[in-house]
Amino acid sequence: xxxxxxxxxxxxxxxxxxxxxxxxxxxxxxxxxxxxxxxxxxxxxxxxxxxxxxxxxxxxxxxxxxxxxxxxxxxxxxxxxxxxx
Length: 85
Prior knowledge:
Elements: H1 8-26, H2 32-45, H3 47-75
Helix pairs in contact: 1-2
């Protein structure tokens, strides 16, 4: 079993939001313990997929910025031929 990635405060907020969503959208009432267990299940079973997607998106953003920086450096190049003799 992996360590819980959330602080006590973060987990309490997520549990609150999960319980509210289930109540509002599905008319399902669950207790705090059940919501914590469900959150742990979601984090353990599908959390890595969301984490990996975030890493993929971050990598794409960094690659875009790196390409822009590389282009900016190339624009600084000066001609080395055709000068005065």
